[in-house]
Amino acid sequence: MRLLDACARRPVDATPIWLMRQAGRYLPEYRAIREKMSLVEMCRRPDVAAEVTLQPLRRFELDAAIVFADILLPLEPMGIGFHFSKDDGPVIERPIRGARDLEGVHTIDAAADLPYVMDTLRLVRHELDPTIALIGFSGAPFTLASYIVEGGHSRNYAHVKKLMYEDPVTFSRLMGLLSEVVVDYLKAQIAAGAQVVQVFDSWVGWVGPYDYKLLVLPHVRYVMDKVRATGTPVIYFGNGASGMLHLVAQAGADVYGVDWRIELDRAWEQLGDVAVQGNLDPITLLGPPKAIEERVADVMRRAGGRPGHIFNLGHGLIPQVPLDNVKFLVDAVHRLSASPI
Ligand code: CP3
């Protein structure tokens, strides 16, 4: 399996590719289902979630499926209510801003509390071509904490940083609790058929290197150590973290996701002897094929045919992307890697 070979830095016949947010609103068949139910309802219906997981694989020769779920799903069983608002994205009903707000917030038993995610994984694995890998995922402790403390999207992460500085004990208790939840959630996904798991640290790039090293990295390391003990490869994606990859490299992952703000070879140099995933600017997909090909070729040149490259975007695909451009990208990666430039 190309993706698993690349995770273990074994040679492959062509560079594996999958795309963050490959299931979603840019697909008309996704929008048709989404019109009839909410995102959370979709996640809670394993038949629907499995169908949506497989949709992009019917159109494109992707090397992996990523289970259709959301990083916020574990919050509800932890005792943290949330909903998606039409215009503002996720809304946490009672943001945690201090020690007292943490009362009543607890760990979960993911297999029992989020059975629909595990059922979706089992359904997808059953239907998926055996050469295609199935990816499970979770938010990273800091990214989850940022939603829980900010209450939703944030411009400057002022609330979560203020908590970090003012009450580091409560911040660390929250991070520790989230780390346990993430480990349990990922282990349950692995038991249900996930062959690789990705930890999304989508907003960690808003933390400076000093705070990352002191207050965030130890929790990421804990998660990596516990999950890697299962023998399943773990991808750690720190979005916006390209300025502190020398610290990110200490997380202990098998594979590091890299955003588009750094050249892939420069990133790889700092990450060391590991597999690397990335790193095309997702907005490139709004350009014409010629522009896409040029930039894909640049990423491939920087990967330089080394084993252990997984092609991906530097962050999630946006809904405005034309379908033809996604097909062009996937085919270009396979074409360019099968016959080196
Ligand atoms: O194809 C896939 O990538 C699998 C499904 C997936 C979803 N969310 C479904 C979803 C994955 C991997 C995620 C991860 C996720 N969720 C992240 C990490 C990835 C990243 O982009 O950094 C984050 C930060 C979230 C939280 C989240 N979920 C936000 C901020 C939003 C609203 C903003 C938006 O894009 O509309 C969501 C909603 C969400 N989760 C959608 C999808 C497909 C949006 C589509 C919809 O409402 O139908």
Question: How would you describe the overall organization of this protein?
Answer:
Strand 8, helix 14 and strand 9 form a beta-alpha-beta unit. This protein is an alpha/beta fold and 341 residues long. It contains 15 helices and 9 strands. Bound molecules: coproporphyrinogen III (CP3). The site of coproporphyrinogen III has 21 residues, from strand 3. Coproporphyrinogen III binds next to strand 3.
In summary, what is this structure?
By secondary structure, the chain is of the alpha/beta class. The protein has helices spanning 2-7, 28-34, 39-44, 46-59, 75-78, 110-113, 115-127, 141-150, 158-166, 168-191, 209-228, 245-248, 264-271, 289-303, 323-338, and strands at residues 64-66, 82-85, 89-92, 133-139, 196-201, 234-238, 255-257, 275-280, 309-313.
Task: Tell me, briefly, the overall form.
Answer: globular
What's the number of structural domains?
1
Strand content bin: 5-15%
Under the CATH scheme, the architecture is: Alpha-Beta Barrel
CATH topology: TIM Barrel
Uncertain ranges: none
The biggest beta sheet reads:
7 strands, parallel
Helix fraction by DSSP (H/I, runs of at least 4):
40-55%
Mean pLDDT, to the nearest integer, reads 97
Given this structure, which CATH class is correct? Answer: Alpha Beta
- The tally of beta strands, per DSSP, is 9
- Strand order, main sheet: write it out: 1-4-5-6-7-8-9
**Distinct ligands:** coproporphyrinogen III
Structural class: alpha/beta
Number of alpha- plus pi-helical segments: 15
Radius of gyration, CA atoms, in whole angstroms: 19 Å
